[in-house]
Amino acid sequence: MTNQSESAPVKMRRGRRQGENTTRQAIIEAARQRFSVDGYALATIRKIAADAGVNASLVIQFYGSKEGLFAAAMSMSPMALEGLATSFGGDRSCIGERVVRTFLQLWEQEAASSESMIAMLRAAVANEAVSVQLRDFLQVRLTEEIAPRLERVPDAALRAGVVATMLVGLVIGRRIVRIPALAELSIDNIVALAAPGVQVILCPS
Amino acid sequence: MTNQSESAPVKMRRGRRQGENTTRQAIIEAARQRFSVDGYALATIRKIAADAGVNASLVIQFYGSKEGLFAAAMSMSPMALEGLATSFGGDRSCIGERVVRTFLQLWEQEAASSESMIAMLRAAVANEAVSVQLRDFLQVRLTEEIAPRLERVPDAALRAGVVATMLVGLVIGRRIVRIPALAELSIDNIVALAAPGVQVILCPS
Question: pTM higher than 0.95, yes or no?
Answer without folding.
Answer: no
